[in-house]
Amino acid sequence: MSTRTGCDPTSIGRRMASARELRGLTQRQLAERIPCSKSLIAQVESGHKPASQALIAGAARALRVGLDELTGQPYRDESRHDRVHSTVPELRRALLAWDLPDEDVRPRGVTDLRKDVARASQLGQKARYVQLGEMLPALLDELTAAAHVSSAPAPLQALLSEAYTGATAIAYTLGYFDLRALAMDRVQRAAEASQDPLRTARTQWQRSTLFLASGAYAKGTAVLDRVRRDLGDDVGRLDAPALSVLGATHLRSAVFAARTPDAAAAWAHIDEAREITRLLGVDANHYGLEFGPSNVSMHEVAVAVEMYDGTGAVERARRTRLPNTVAPVRLGHYYIDLARGFLYHGDRARALEALQKARQVAPQQTRNHPMVHETVRMLNDLERRRPESLANFATWLRIP
């Protein structure tokens, strides 16, 4: 006999209901605090509708709990050796020691350090978080020591900022939200010390994700608006790196608007980003942003999904042709969003296919993403005769 998702104590809906009941709130009272409809709360808690990232963030803020209390992250299986999680303690230590260089470390020259930071960035783009987590602590120690003794530390601070960004990626992927905030502070400090205004602007774009996760949409939108004001509105005078930063802020603002939800503002930001790609011409990777036509197309799908518009997401995906140069970490996110779009559209088979594609291109990212877990639980609940492929996927996720 099928078990409703809402009866599963590990589901987001059931966790939400437990937190709400603990605080003595009715479903209507919680809906008013988020705000959203009371029927949406009821459907998610009962397992009839999947929780969106916007709902999770809003509920966490309204209930005054951490996101991890609703998502159940980090997802760990104590019965097996989980290499990616085992890298976190040393990574945390390296972040805490940002101003305490190890005297025993003899740093190499800037050229060698730059090569290692580039390699770390490539591991992040490929969503290879085990290898990245094993590499970063020693690299951060060496960069910290080098910057401390250098008479011209700005280039080393730029490298530190980029390396710290790898730590934010690991923390975000695994669901260590306190570690993510700590790493983001380090990114910002190093960016400011690099004396590179565009790197600092890129850091503010990255900082906005903290507000996105916490449901503080007005604050996040204000951060992105400020970046655009600082860059200026004469796009014809901006060089390619500045255009990438500007375009990335519009894509992030589109997601903020979609979660509000403000469809008109969301699509207006998408249009602005697409116009900037016309000036830029190609997919680029300035400051690791990977801004370009492909990223705009992927965000079109994401924006539709954020507004529960599954049919719109599927239609936009049908018009999307992504080159094989798209980084696995971006492609993984795209397929995870597309799976949710197919689920909302009512095409459960295609939803599972999209999840399998995400697993193929970015397995570590896919296995640890809460929306993957939520989608699989919903598919499991909706299918009367569960296909073996779905059962195997759930087992791989370590869902009972």
TrEMBL record:
InterPro entries (alphabetical): Cro/C1-type_HTH, Lambda_DNA-bd_dom_sf, TPR_rpt
UniProt domain HTH cro/C1-type: residue ranges: 16-70
UniProt keywords, alphabetically: TPR repeat
Origin superkingdom: Bacteria
Keyword check for Coiled coil: no
Residue spans of the TPR repeats: 332-365
Name listed for the protein in its UniProt record: Helix-turn-helix domain-containing protein
